[in-house]
Amino acid sequence: MKYTLSLLAALSLPLAAQAQRKPAPAASTTTDARAAIREADIKRDLYALAADHYRGREGGTLDELRASAWLAEQARAIGAQPAGDDGTYFQFFEIQRLRLAKSSQLSIGSHQLRVNHDAIVFAPVAANVNAPLVWVGTGTAAELAKVDVKGKAVALQFSGEVPPGLSFRRFQMATMRDRSAELFKAGAVAVAWVGDTRAQAVFEHWGHTYERGRYDLPGGPNLKVAASAPIIWLPASALSWAQQPGQQLLANLQVETFKYPSVNVLATIPGTDAQLKSQYVLFGTHQDHDGVREAVAGDSIYNGADDNATGCSAVLAIMRAFKQKPGRRSALFAFQGAEERGLLGSRYYSAHPLVGEKNIVAVLNAEMMGRNAPDSASLLGRQRPHRNSLDLVTTALAANQRGPQFKLDTLWDRADHPEGWFFRSDNLPYARLGIPALSYTTVLHPDYHTPRDERERINYPKLTKMTLWMYLTGWAVVNRQDPPARDKDFKLER
């Protein structure tokens, strides 16, 4: 689908073979344009993009489109050439939303529950349940042995110890999902979990995300409507009445779907080598965040300063450096929309690359680069099974030594890391295609996806060093004779 520039005018913005163990020699560090990467520019751009004016840049909203138009204007002002559709900076695409309809009804005994407010339903399911509710405590084998759950709704209290390295929220979600599946297999028609005191903070902060439902590109797997038994999550305050015998659970759950526009912002600085300028190093990031949601401590705007205004300001700075001194290959800059909806912009562009998939020789992705210890960072795609180019990794490690000299945390790139960080950013769709891809990040922190992820909390000297590292890697790749070799035996674990 295509959208015309009239939409942007309405926004009132001015738009006009085997992996090598050693990389090819890099361009001399005296010939790069690292001096063009300035902390003042990065801070100015981040303060603009993470301001309340853009209302958290939620994917599929006018706020995301306004922020995208601002990014396009910055690219125009820098002098980067449009690389989107029809000679513009934009590649529009459609996203689809699936959610529980507002008319859905849910009650337990005499308690009428507002869906995804008083009680959270895990997934948009079409379900009609009228069943007796049985309480099974914490659902131990001994407790379940006393109850026949077939044809009944089962209520139980959440419990369990969090494995080392895993966030409580992810542990809770996985536990509820997996144990509910066991109860459904035993014949239960619904499962109602009562959160413990640990879960209450998660309920209050993350509960509103379930009201939004699921998103995907049209026809994507997240849009499949399940006509299945519902999983319901009740707040800790429900414990006093959820245990009462003789109650009936009534659920009439219906789903509805909507479509919205989102956009990738694309710009390029052409290379100087006649033979190599048709090849591109893609510097990628995402511009969206969580938008306006239920207030936390009086703040309802999730500005996403680290996630991911840091990445956007870094890519703009790298764009300025390449404009000042282009490389032999072309530099492609991609601000990808709706990442928080499931990497939708990068999934769309990787499937519809306007420069041609075979011409993208490497992808360097910026994801949350401004928090945590000032001397540490992570490089995703560095180690197997996530690594698809030892050649590119060696180049990136050499760039770190030439530049910021971060101490690299390798734990976040491990296949057994419980957060699965490699699979949660825009490096993934390109890596799945076999394109050498890395992601530069300073990883999670307590303000992640909260209104506290504000521009005042960013470590700007560290962000500038992260930007320099990413630039020096790209500078080496655009100027070497051969593109980064790909690992022939690359295969992700999932």
Q: What structural keywords apply?
A:
single chain, 12 helices, 494 residues, 2 domains, 8-stranded mixed sheet, 10-stranded mixed sheet, M28 family peptidase, Glucose Oxidase, domain 1, disordered N terminus, Aminopeptidase, 29% helix, alpha/beta
Report the radius of gyration as a whole number of Å: 24 Å
CATH topology of the largest domain: Aminopeptidase
Helix content: 25-40%
Taking pLDDT < 50 over at least 5 consecutive residues as the criterion, the unreliable ranges are 1-7, 9-29
Number of helices: 12
CATH class of the largest domain: Alpha Beta
Number of domains: 2
**Architecture of the largest domain, CATH level 2?**
3-Layer(aba) Sandwich
Q: Give the overall pLDDT as a whole number.
A: 92
Inertia-based shape: elongated
How many strands, what sense, and barrel or not for the largest sheet?
Answer: 10 strands, mixed
Q: How many beta-strand runs?
A: 20
CATH H-level homologous superfamily name of the largest domain: Zn peptidases
Q: Hey, roughly how much beta strand do the residues contain?
A: 15-25%
Distance linking N and C termini: 31 Å
Domain Peptidase M28: 264-467
Keywords: Signal
Protein name: M28 family peptidase
Signal peptide: 1-19
Q: Can you describe this structure?
A:
The chain has 494 residues and is an alpha/beta fold. Helix content is 29%, strand content 22%. It folds into two domains: 312 residues, Aminopeptidase (3-Layer(aba) Sandwich); 152 residues, Glucose Oxidase, domain 1 (3-Layer(bba) Sandwich). The strands form three sheets. Strands 1, 2, 9, 12, 13, 16, 17, 18, 19 and 20 form a ten-stranded mixed sheet that branches. An eight-stranded mixed sheet has the order 4-3-11-6-7-8-10-5. A two-stranded antiparallel sheet has the order 14-15. α4 links the parallel β6 and β7. The longest helix is centred in the middle third of the chain and has 20 residues. It is elongated, with a radius of gyration of 24 Å. The N terminus is likely disordered.
